[in-house]
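Example record for the data management plan.
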Amino acid sequence: MLPEQAPAKSRSSRSSLIGQLEKILSSALFLAALFTLAFIITEEVFNRKKELINQSDAWLRALAVQLEPSLMFKDAKAAEELLQATSQMPALVGSLVTVESIGDVFATESIASYTSPNHESLDAKPLSKQQTNKTSVFSAYWIRSTEIYVAGAPIGMLYAKIDTGPMWNDIFRFALIIVLILSGSGLLATKIARREFRKAFEPILELTRITAEVTH
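Corresponding structural encoding:
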């Protein structure tokens, strides 16, 4: 090997080693940002879900108290007017009031309902048979329910159909903002880290090269 070729080979080897170390550093920063993003988004999903459930249940309990006189006298018109208040809650797209009557056969009778435009109405028959208050994160709708009491005895049920679309829209907007913030800060952090990393390691590698040349 010619004498002038040795320094060139040494510089090439040094650059290659620094390049590999920089790739490892960049990968570590990327994985850290990815785990941070996953944690933040997961926590946001569960917080939004809990918030929507609490809001829906609080609204249902308040409306159930207001519906007591209507169910006591089976006043469908008054109950219908009260259900119009569901339009004040954006996520709530349908509601249904049923009373339980006992004659020759036990029956569930629907006396009032409300449905937002472009949504399917609630049906008392399948609702009385299926379990309500299930809140799968990936369901398009949740069915929440609460009993209506008169004089301490249950006389009917109030059902509400909750659209999870608005919740997911908020989550996606939040996720987009977090992705943009983490991407920008991650790229800046990687650039700065690589620069400082190169500054810190080049003297060490140069000293190693000189030591190797003196030894040989």
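Summary line stored alongside the record: Confidence is low (pLDDT under 50) at residues 1-6, 102-106.
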